[in-house]
Amino acid sequence: MNPSLKLLLLLIVALEISFTTIVSLNVALVILAGIYLLAKRVKLRTLLWLLIVPLIPAIGLWSTQYINGTGQKELMAWVLFTRIYAFVFTGATLTLTTDVLELTDSLEQNCHLPAKFAYGVLAAYNLAPKIKHEVQVIRAAGLMRGQTLSFWSPQLYFKAILISITWSQNLAQAMASHGFVEDAPRTHYRKVRVRPVDWGLLIGGIILLQLGVFVMPWH
Amino acid sequence: MATIALEHLSYTYQTAQTPIFEHVTAKFPAHQFTLLTGPSGTGKSTLLQLMAGLLPLPADHGHICYDQTQLQNISAPDRSKRVAMMFQNPNQQFAMDTVEHELIFALENQRTDPHIIHHRLTSALDFIGIRELQHRLLNQLSGGEKQKVALAVIVAMDSDVILLDEPFASVDPDARVSLLRRLVELRDQRGKTIILADHDYAGYDQIVDHVLQITPTHQVVELSRSDWPAFFAAFQPQTLPAWFLPVPVDQPLFALHQVGLRQGQHELVRPTDLQLHAHRNTLITGANGTGKSTLFEALVRLNPYSGTINYDGHDIQKLRRKRYARHVALLFQDAEAQFFNITVAEELAQSQKYAYGDYFTPTRIQSALTQLNLAGRDEQVIYTLSEGQKKKLQILLMLIMQSPVLLMDEPLKGLDLSSIHALVKLLQTVQAATQQTLIIISHQLTGLTPLIDYHLRLADHQLQYVGEVRHES
Amino acid sequence: MKWVKDWYLSDIILLALIGVFFGIIFLGTNYVYDVLTAVFAPLGLSQIPNELLLGLWCMPGMLAGYMLRIKGASVLGEFLASVVEMLFGGQWGASTMISGILQGIGSELGFTLTRYKHYDWLGLAATAATTTIVTFGWDLARSGYGKLQLWLLLLFFVVRFCSMFVFGGLLTRAITDLLDRSHVLKTTHTN
Ligand SMILES: Nc1ncnc2c1ncn2[C@@H]1O[C@H](COP(=O)(O)OP(=O)(O)OP(=O)(O)O)[C@@H](O)[C@H]1O
Ligand SMILES: Nc1ncnc2c1ncn2[C@@H]1O[C@H](COP(=O)(O)OP(=O)(O)OP(=O)(O)O)[C@@H](O)[C@H]1O
Ligand SMILES: [Mg+2]
Ligand SMILES: [Mg+2]
Q1: Mutating which of A189, A190, A191, A192 best tests the B interface, going by the most B Cβ atoms within 10 A?
Q2: Least confident piece of the model among A181-190, B445-454, B464-473, C139-148
Q3: Set of chain C residues whose Cβ sits within 8 Å of the Cβ of B14
Q4: TM segments (chain B) (predicted)?
Q5: In angstroms, what separates the C-alpha of C120 from chain B's closest C-alpha?
Q6: Which helix (DSSP H) or strand (DSSP E) does residue B456 occupy?
């Protein structure tokens, strides 16, 4: 499916289930997303991981409602529990199966997102592995100069921002010297199209969701 | 094809009092190779950025002309066909993830017809001779490989003028030779104009057409041919002195047992046993990307490794991080990594406060600053120092800390020859008094050799001492 | 789309990079969150750690607004941080982006209400307050807060505001003071 339309569909789903209280709908979404992920050959281990990661926040929300809720405590507790899983699994259909570059291309070509936003964020994203290492380096360098930095130390964030500033200027200069001009037209080597079937999937998905929310007698 | 002319160019940084350039008039002829020189901090980077249009030139500050056209009158989309720049730092030069995608990105920016993009891209890679890197992730390339990719991008974009700001600062000698050969081909076969700033002039006298110098009086003047021999003499290729092999001891500083290093899927160093020695200076050399920095990061626990590393008889994984950091410090390849404050004076104060030894008294610090030509900059914000100035300050800060062991990753990067001599002298004086152990990674050896006792070489995934066997007398 | 012209490529990269950096630093707080959640769960108060740390997650937005002083910086800063977080496979999938926009709008409102003139304690207090209010409104629905007992809601609200003020106010101020002195941030914008 076209990445932009997929993102749009997922946003609609996330928004709508935030306001509904149907456990079975959440479960159905998790199952659908799970099937999609399996069909796309996502590893079973990754799927298991998706089940484990949200467990603590899910239990947190569940217990808060269960103990301190008003009205139908038990129902609400389970709604919230399953809602988190619905968020995670539907979200994974994008993050685990769509290449970030493909999404960028599509946002630029199909949604006419200005190229500076598309490539600016992409450039930063591509530096992420380096950034992970850099955070460790900041901490170690601090120790070597007698300074312990933890997540509430202004210096840690100051260093992070300084590096961000230097890198952003370097990257912007490098992109400019690779011919990138803000707000100027570009050609596209990898063409991304919105095919009728993409529209079909989007509209079909939305209709299905409404059926699930308003029509289906879940109980 | 473009001749570049500077006409009455003046430039001063907003936050600085002294100008960098004052009414400079100079010419960079078309199809020729010009070497731009000048001591650290005179404004080479500034000039190149002005010429590339990356630093805007205020009105009434003279002109930069490409043939007859003023730079600011060349429309932004056409600029990349006129001039492209290659930067000193091989990182943060690319927006995309892989080599191929970066080239496509650049060609798309130039509005190249998508049908010919593939052809342009492969022929540029072939020209530089790095076709095998086409699908590699940029993050996983070595410094030298990244610089080759950067050059390939410029070749694909087919810019008339190529500006290079110390492109070889983190590149090993082999990669440097091969990159220089490409540049000469670009001039001879494709008529490119090439302007390159560097500190290490070795080998240029055979290649370049002009040498331009930025003078202390903020001018740019050409060095006449007759002065070339004297100018290049200090940079004759050196043969390494014959160091001795270390004699194995019972209590080495570091003892590595079956230590292996890898990055991702990639094996860098095969499991090996090795000793590093206290109160001696060890030089580590090896080509780009062989894993020298990775080794240092393993020694300070910033990178995983297999096997065990003992420091002074203790497994480093079992030592408290904070305590260990005060024993074994690392001078990072990137100077800014070591700064935590704002002004030069604040940095010096912090190092003094937490120092491990008391060798560096205020008087000694002052004389070291003078020696390194950094005096009088107490209130300057560190982030406005030039690359060379940052490097010197970084080294001084770590020396003041007086950790028993200092690992130095490319300490000479971006330094001019007189700075190197001053620095090596300072290191020798300090070491005579404090017995600090230095372990040094360096590509650049000019001036450094008097400091070295042992030589460790990293090649073919092997880490081995090289040198002669010492005969007992 | 006039606002698009106000943004330079380097600003966009800067905000996205700050988003990545902060996201990675925050990952280190996850274990604090997990432990606290487990401790508070039997009391039905396991949202407390979430409330305590939320200010940290909203910091990119408040900081961006305070640091860059451009209209829309908070929204864009927080949104980009959430996009990057989502791409990394953050815990909340696409709803991360919705939260990101709302948190950003919340932070932005504080600066809007003070007419983009108060880059001082007043502005910071305002942005902490509006961020608290907007995000709390969203959690009434998304996290089912609407169905909780009143005393608990009040407690959560107060804790959340304190967290916003500590991280978005005090810490942001400390960081930007350092930045101001370092002169590295020369905004080229004039509004
Ligand atoms: N943004 C800035 N604000 C104020 N001063 C600056 C700024 N950037 C550079 N300088 C100063 O301008 C001078 C020239 O800097 P530049 O980086 O061009 O030198 P360089 O010749 O490239 O030196 P190096 O060989 O060390 O790289 C230096 O003294 C530096 O301290
Ligand atoms: N996170 C990573 N994932 C995969 N490969 C990496 C990663 N980080 C570094 N590398 C690669 O590992 C190799 C070793 O890098 P290292 O920095 O140790 O080399 P080096 O010997 O210090 O080179 P140089 O002389 O260029 O400084 C390089 O090819 C580098 O691109
Ligand atoms: Mg320079
Ligand atoms: Mg290295």
Answers
A1: A189
A2: B464-473
A3: 186
A4: none
A5: 22
A6: strand B454-459
**Structural domain for C43, as ranges:** 4-181
Query: What residue's CA is closest to ligand 2, atom 17?
Result: B293
Neighbours of B132 (CB within 10 A): 9
Of A125, A170, C185, give the one whose Cα is nearest residue B334: A170
B406 residue type, one letter? L
Which residues 99-118 in chain B show a CB within 8 A of chain A?
101-102, 104-114, 117-118
Mean per-residue pLDDT, A154-168: 93
The rounded mean pLDDT for chain A is: 92
B263 in Cβ contact with B294 (< 8 Å):
yes
Residue A13: closest CA among A206, A215, A216: A206
In-domain check, residue C148 = yes
Q: Which regions of chain C are under pLDDT 50?
A: 1, 188-191
Question: Hunting for tokens 């001696």 — which residue is that?
Answer: B280
Measure C110 CA to nearest chain A CA, in Å.
22
How is residue A28 written in tokens? 């159905």
Average pLDDT, chain B: 91
Max Cα–Cα distance, chain B, nearest Å = 74
Q: What is the CATH number of domain B254-466?
A: 3.40.50.300
- C-alpha distances (whole Å) from C101 to each of A8, B130, B272, C25, C90 are 15, 43, 52, 21, 15
Q: What is the pLDDT of residues A16-71, one digit of tens each?
A: 999 999 999 999 999 999 999 999 999 999 899 889 888 888 988 899 889 888 88
Q: Residue A153: its pLDDT value, please? A: 92
One-letter amino acid for residue B190 of the chain? R
Which helix (H) or strand (E) segment is B282 a member of? strand B282-286
Task: Please report whether residue C188 resides in a domain.
Answer: no
Distance between first and last Cα of chain A: 32
> Residue B306: left if φ>0, alpha if ψ -120 to 50, beta else—which one?
beta
Cα separation, C73 vs C103, in Å, equals 12
Q: Is C189 domain-assigned?
A: no
Query: Residues B438, B212: contact at Cβ < 8 Å?
Result: no
**From A101, A138, A167, residue closest to B92, measured CB to CB:** A167
State pLDDT tens for residues B36-45. 999 888 999 9
Give ranges for CATH 3.40.50.300 in chain B.
4-234, 254-466
Residues around the ion ligand 3 (C-beta < 5 A): B 45, 387
Q: Tens digits of per-residue pLDDT, B240-264? A: 788 888 888 888 999 999 999 998 8
Smallest Cα distance from C162 to chain A, Å: 15
Q: Is the dihedral of CA B431, B432, B433, B434 positive or negative?
A: positive
- Domain assignment present for C186: no
- In this prediction, residues A64-85 reach a mean pLDDT of 90
Distance CA B116, CA B130 (A): 19
User: Which CATH homologous superfamily contains domain B4-234?
Assistant: P-loop containing nucleotide triphosphate hydrolases (3.40.50.300)
Token reading at C17? 């990079």
Question: Which pLDDT value is given to residue C1?
Answer: 47
Q: Which among A166, A167, A177 has the least Cβ separation from residue B54?
A: A177
Which amino acid does the sequence have at B452? Answer: I
Output the pTM of the full model. 0.91
Q: Which residues contact B208 (CB under 8 A, 6 or more apart)?
A: B33, B34, B35, B196
| Torsional class of B264: left (φ above 0), alpha (ψ -120 to 50), beta (otherwise) | left
Interface-testing mutation among C20, C181, C185, with chain B (most B C-beta atoms within 10 A): C181
The mean pLDDT of B395-410, rounded to a whole number, is 95
DSSP-derived pairing of the beta strands B210-214 and B220-222: antiparallel
Bridge-based pairing of strands B83-86 and B161-165 is parallel
pLDDT of amino acid C126: 95
Is the C-alpha dihedral spanning A103, A109, A113, A117 positive or negative? positive
